[in-house]
Amino acid sequence: MSEESTVVTHPFLDLAPLGAAQFASIEDRVARLLRTEQDVVIMQGEALLPLEGAIRSTAGPGTTALNVITGPYGQTFGDWLRDCGATVIDLAVPFHTAVTAAQIAAAFEEHPAIDFVSLVHAEAATGNTNPVAEIGEVVRRQGALFYLDAVASVGAEPVLPDAWGVDLCVIGAQKAMGGPAGVSAVSVSERAWARMAANPKAPRRSYLSLLDWKERWIDGGRKALLHAPAQLEMLALEACVERIEADGLDAVMGRHRAAAAATRAGARALGGGLEPYVHEDREAAPAATTLRAPSGVAASELVTRALSCDPALPLAAGGGALAKEMIRVNHYGVDATLGAVRASLAALGAALREKGIAADVESALRAAEDAWR
Amino acid sequence: MSEESTVVTHPFLDLAPLGAAQFASIEDRVARLLRTEQDVVIMQGEALLPLEGAIRSTAGPGTTALNVITGPYGQTFGDWLRDCGATVIDLAVPFHTAVTAAQIAAAFEEHPAIDFVSLVHAEAATGNTNPVAEIGEVVRRQGALFYLDAVASVGAEPVLPDAWGVDLCVIGAQKAMGGPAGVSAVSVSERAWARMAANPKAPRRSYLSLLDWKERWIDGGRKALLHAPAQLEMLALEACVERIEADGLDAVMGRHRAAAAATRAGARALGGGLEPYVHEDREAAPAATTLRAPSGVAASELVTRALSCDPALPLAAGGGALAKEMIRVNHYGVDATLGAVRASLAALGAALREKGIAADVESALRAAEDAWR
Amino acid sequence: MSEESTVVTHPFLDLAPLGAAQFASIEDRVARLLRTEQDVVIMQGEALLPLEGAIRSTAGPGTTALNVITGPYGQTFGDWLRDCGATVIDLAVPFHTAVTAAQIAAAFEEHPAIDFVSLVHAEAATGNTNPVAEIGEVVRRQGALFYLDAVASVGAEPVLPDAWGVDLCVIGAQKAMGGPAGVSAVSVSERAWARMAANPKAPRRSYLSLLDWKERWIDGGRKALLHAPAQLEMLALEACVERIEADGLDAVMGRHRAAAAATRAGARALGGGLEPYVHEDREAAPAATTLRAPSGVAASELVTRALSCDPALPLAAGGGALAKEMIRVNHYGVDATLGAVRASLAALGAALREKGIAADVESALRAAEDAWR
Amino acid sequence: MSEESTVVTHPFLDLAPLGAAQFASIEDRVARLLRTEQDVVIMQGEALLPLEGAIRSTAGPGTTALNVITGPYGQTFGDWLRDCGATVIDLAVPFHTAVTAAQIAAAFEEHPAIDFVSLVHAEAATGNTNPVAEIGEVVRRQGALFYLDAVASVGAEPVLPDAWGVDLCVIGAQKAMGGPAGVSAVSVSERAWARMAANPKAPRRSYLSLLDWKERWIDGGRKALLHAPAQLEMLALEACVERIEADGLDAVMGRHRAAAAATRAGARALGGGLEPYVHEDREAAPAATTLRAPSGVAASELVTRALSCDPALPLAAGGGALAKEMIRVNHYGVDATLGAVRASLAALGAALREKGIAADVESALRAAEDAWR
Fold first, then answer.
1. For residue range B155-191, what is the model confidence (pLDDT) as tens digits?
2. Of the residues D197, D212, D246, the one at which a domain ends
3. Which of C77, C34, C35 is nearest to C58 (CA)?
4. Which residues of A touch B (CB under 8 A)?
5. pTM of the model
6. Per-residue pLDDT tens for C40-72?
7. Domain range holding C94?
8. Is C11 part of any domain?
9. Helices C361-372 and C249-270 meet at what angle, rounded to 10?
10. Residues D237 and D126 in one domain
């Protein structure tokens, strides 16, 4: 073999294309993770792709959508829905709380025409999580289509489309699953497929189209892919599901739940005015905890100080206007550890003290440790 | 380190996210490969994503588009253009030939309203390549926007958006570049950006949107990505451009040109009724050669026979109706070798003989070898 | 997460160390591939490491070794054996043939003191393969320890240490298994362990030591590794065994056997003086075929010509003095295809013709195709 | 391309072999990292391979070796030296300190025959680092050969074979470099090569041999490798050196130095009887800090408790007899962060309290933060 002929050798090049059979088997593996009998379509892009594709496929001028806003993604979904011509009823709840099934029921009562509900399960950006099981019961009773963004919940807390009556459940692997961001998945119920088929404006022959996958991939027996897949990301998705299976989904979710409990308990004990942004524990997302900065101190400044000695900490300020008041602790994936929580609390305590605010790191850590167990 | 804590170790997991700086540097590297000063946007999906996004961003009811059809992709572009409300003038040329600059000029003469031209540079599916430099001169003279699909040409033959006046030049790495299929790129001229900005129906806040990348990524100084990128595919794209740089782009293109010349010469010498589908050498794509099956023999059957003993050969039957008459030899990427050409010719010769058709493999190989040099 | 903090992101960095449990499971998988109940030790180096380690561990001044030389590795083994102080009886057979069980039996008769037999199963460098099953019967009857180098046979033909009575069976993944070269394995019988334990000069506390692995790894229940493993190579070994399991070992071996048969038949039909170096088909290795260059033509020159237009062909001249007369066709791993055989035969035919020697490529290919089936 | 033909696709399989040119360029890159003009040989195994190979190549019955023991590796080197027939003078210093240049000078005075000095630069297992620059001056003045194990120092503190007069400097990438463990390197001075060439017992034609690499690789102009390399590990080594170059070696070393300072200051402030095992700061290794457990408490028990809630923490008990009294904080590679130090101190504080021992975590963290800056 002439050694001179290959100048650059790289394991990411010259791979055999990912075959349809392996692609289908990865879809099946994701379906098992979601305990669903629905069709699971893996789309070749970030989770925004199936999120947008699912709305554009199902919503149209005849749609009356109840759009629940518990964070920035809900606002995006409303934009898409209006763009499709749907009548949109926004149900915005303060970011420090979750929506309740009762609020959903009340909205149905007020707007009987609602035939579509869009909801973000958990929002990493605001740190809340919504009671999807209870909401699903209401939505199903009303016969509306139920669309769920589970990107920030899958792997951190139960995501059960079938048990909950979710018709369009979108996931990505980049948060609690500890996997790639470049491919994502959506489970689609029979009802959702029917709604799309009846929607003349549903994208077809488009990168956004779910129906293309239905008609050319699923209905064809999953023999021929629509286009060459993002093969490395697909292999990474397979690997991360394999790891979750090996660890046990319950153990993985348990680590996230413990990290959230520890962060919240620690922040409360730290004092200095820092407190959980989401008031109720049961409304707090297991994947990421948001904290409210003490009044008079910019959250972004605290975060900058905390990261200055340790840029790898999973801390960020809130986005946009929230940068003033919200600190995010992203204890998901590899950071779903007590160590990441401890280091984050200690760094926040030090940042508070630099601003002249007393902070009881000792108590914070003890509280975090107690809560972790 | 507790060894029991990690059940599944995999190099594709738990990577640090790809930062904005590295993302931007990969864009710059692609721009250098295309010798362009235009903005290069890397989109997080297969090449269909920027292909569709570029059309939906620029075309609208006020657009008069000349859509050149030299293969299946041209037909898809026409669908998208019509979908956008554009007036579409289809200029279809037989798949065994290329379009000429004169044909383009004549179309402009006949339809002076044309302000958009869409063209596929080379089509792997039909094996032709079009004279983009000459066509570009005509299009520029007319002031129309020039949209080019260079997915099957980049790496195999020159692709020079600036020199040729291409306003939207889309590439993917999965063919002659020997790279990943999951991310792709488009270079965008100032004129194209202006057209999009003036287009009220250009996708915004959408996975299909180019303007989102312009406004939130480029205009912001490429500091913050719109969403987490497909990081493994991005690294693979970087690696494949690095390899092309190390080998030399001219050398890489030379291998593809030689492979095409050898395949065509070989097929002619093989006899038995097999002949190049594209008549003129200069209209034949360097990345893939199409052959016409002898009359009375289905191309798909010949391919099936040829692959039966060697499923790794880069052979395929034409798509759809072409399956009857067209054989594709995909001598791109790792298959841009004389060995792949020889093995393909020998396999086709054997398949012909199995059908009772004489084939002169000896002459075919000699002709291929002569043409390769 | 500060994006500026990570300048270089690479999937090969910052991996969690490979744990003992996964290491052990890879050993078990290799054992299943070899259908052996013996201990399998994976050593962290190229196959030369266990090859050398096994000899230095078992041989000493009291050893009388029958060293069978059917290629260059046999010569190396003799050097090691002498270096250990063993009495070495070299049994060299011409490289164009294999050793026979009768020759082994005769050697035992002549030298009843023989208590160790070293043999290369198949030699890629000379292209022969030896009848290990029959030889094993003789060796076992005589009670000698049986050491086998199966690096160039595993994956291409059956390797069955238990059925054949092999005491030390060394494999590497870099040939027919299509895997990595950086780690390798040896299966060790109880008798071999006992021999080592009784050998005062067996390496201990040494990178060459097998006893270290026995005493500190195996006897300790495989809980703690001796040192951090070559983790990427281990994962690659796991992947290649997984692929063989998925394809089926029989299918993988079948491809290699077919490639050898096709190459030999093709070379014979090619004429021009080229002929199989190993006379008897049953003595020819499935992993690689050696050919004798026509008299008056240097093999190395033919190979250079053949590679000039196609450096990726799996061709090489023989090593050392054999460079004059021997051509090697390495149709193993990804090159165990009819396409690689066809391309190699065509390239050799063209090279012969350039030297003014008639070669019937047409017949060569037909013969190869017939033999492949 | 038949999709059914590939059952398992994996980026680690079917790679083109790593060529000699790329191998040589990786050696050159390692040489630049060490600022050395000496030959750098990359050996295909864990660092134990060049460590052992270098001793067996240079030491023999005529050697008088001063073997400095500051941890377990020094003991291993003494075993190898004796095994080679060398006269060994062991200079053992307590693990809580470093050896001094004066002690080395005194040893030379007492034993003028010393012509070889073996030293571990820094020992992760005991946490000390030795003043190699000063010692090098003494050794050079005496004309002895200087052998240095820099595996646990390279990347964490300066390693300068040329400036310090080191003749055999062995490194591995698995600690502060954050790279692979499966390949390693040794720089060899001209004097060292000469010593080996004159040593009749230096390994030759052996996996342990350095002379094989000298004679067959370096002297041949680095054209042909001795055997197929561990290609994935080589690529990982290249990637980790590239990352260090991008970050800046000084910055990488700075992080390790800061982590050590913070850990030591934090442990002192924690109280409860925990204290740095190595008394003097300047004798403490930047890569890893060892701590002495309070009397009456087993270090291994504290570590087990600390890891129980957070198995990913970089904590370990000392090896062997040290398990009772020594705790290791391995703040190297990805763990060279303030966050890892904070989490480790907090975990140790919690473990102490569980044993009923007061620990001032608050003060520990403050001290660590002050020391980090």
1. 999 999 999 999 999 999 999 999 999 999 999 999 9
2. D246
3. C77
4. 7-8, 10, 12-14, 17, 44-46, 48-49, 52-53, 76, 79-80, 174, 178-183, 205-208, 227-233, 235-236, 239-240, 242-243, 246-247, 333-334
5. 0.95
6. 999 999 999 999 999 999 999 999 999 999 999
7. 20-246
8. no
9. 150
10. yes
